[in-house]
Amino acid sequence: MSFLAPLFLLLGAAAAVPLLLHLLRRNVTRRVEFPAARYLQRAEQEHSRSLRLRNLLLMLLRVLLVLALALAAARPFIAGLGVGHGATAVAIVLDNSLSTTAVEGGTPVLDRLRSAARALLLAATPTDRLWLVTADGRVRAGTRDALLDEVERLAPLQGSGDLPLALRRAAAAVQTAALPAQVVALATDAQQTAWAGITRASIPVAVYVPGGEPPRNRAIVAAAAEPARWTPRGAVTGRVESADSVGYRIVLGERTIARGTTGRGDPVSVRVAPPERGWQAGRIELEPDDFPADDARSFAVWIGPAPAVTSAPSAGVFVATALSVLVADGRASAGQDVRIASADAVGALPALIVPPADPVRLGAANRELARLGIPWRYGSLDRSAVVVRGGRLDGVTVSERYHLVRDGAAQSDTLVTVAGEPWIVAGAGYVLLASRLDPAATTLPVRAMFVPWLADMLGLRLGAPAGDLGAPVEARPGASITLPSAADALENASGTRRALDADRMSAPEERGVWFVLHAGRRVGAVVVNVPPEESALARWRGEELATRVAGRLGRATGTPDAWVRDTFAAGTRRPAATPLLVVALLLIAAEAIAVRASRSTAA
User: Fold this and answer.
1) pLDDT tens across 55-84, in order?
2) With helix as H, strand as E and coil as C, how does 301-366 read?
């Protein structure tokens, strides 16, 4: 037994008052011999025993009444007794990830989860401690009414959130409460991809998973412009996950450029040469279904003329051959806008720069790099063979390379590393390699990836207008992204702008294409799409999820009422104030009956 207000137990001392009054009443009269009343003596003797018993009963009723009122005022909690539930610390984890917007039976799953959370909050008492934790891990503490308002205002996330993080924070919150009953109440659609790698909670978890099967879903899980810069033609590619054939359309800006039907597992690929120029937003759309969030996927592309490129003899024959392939394919043209040459013969930027074939020319190469303002120099030669790991050049072998030495503060990016050191670096108007593009130095020129890699370097890094980002930045809603320091705003297709005050920021929550602006000019794009795993609507059964998140401490149900009962079942020490007040009322009634009976007898 425990008490919320133990000081009120001091009122129990008042139980001595009826006892004292009873004892004092035994001596309140003085015995006087009255001969005329002797005939009453026999009657008094006959009734004295019943009077004593009645007075003792009145005293006992009054003592018990005072004790019952004192105990009720102290608000005791007794295991297995009382009504309602004991004071409980409850953290509600309400899954509002994007998958809960799937419609089942004409109602989004999130609406059913929200309704269950409302029922649980309405069942709470003022003695409970309450928290609301959403799928993004945000924790809100407050009163029942305040959290009810939060539930009403809750909107679905545009991504998957982090439900394992939300569960950990919920468990940590309830464990800070100085209450014997602590429980996490989890309301979720039990999407399997959202609960991968969960760490079990060490406190009871009541799980509510609405009954029913997830809807059949058709999803566009990939959409891209290939290459990322069209000169001016290119292709839109996509991947659809569907159990049957589905119609699609491809939109560039607000203009439909293609329609078709794709079957199960068949890729979408359409080649186009649109008249639009500059940065453009596009999307692939599917026929709508019961999970509309993944029925469209965005992409961004820059459309303009092919870069005019010239290759110097010092770049090597493999570069000349790859460049002729790009020119024949329309992805480059002959001209002097971009140069490919060794560092000692490059002359001007923009340029793709390789080391000189003759080490004697290394000094001249470094002087030319300094003249062009490139903050890198060629150092010592290293002929140890290493393999490139990561990126589009994974598996390329490097057998000869110069150590690149930083010399200057100008901004640059390291594109590829070898043995932990920079191998390809890039900056404003240049791409610098530490190895010659020759099989004697690296296997890159004889790999199938060489021509696409060269096209990307020319189109995205060197052929783009000054200040452009190059390839669009792919991001999930709210994910951390890095933009150039020159970027000052983001703008979506409808014209809504968002100012930037840091290079590193969170991607917008709103899905679609956001153009990167510098001084009002589009210099790049951030493409925000649904995480592909959100399209996989397969679910854990409630019992399976309860075991995953809490082991033997987990309990699962498919109805809100049972979920509420499971949540507050942890509070087995229930408040006994109400039963004690009922007992006090019964004692008052019994005392009144006893007093009335005593007066009737006396009369």
Assistant:
1) 677 677 667 767 767 666 665 655 555 456
2) EEECCCCEEEECHHHCHHHHHHHHHHHHCCCCEECCCEEEEEHHHCCCCCEEEECCCCHHHHHHHH
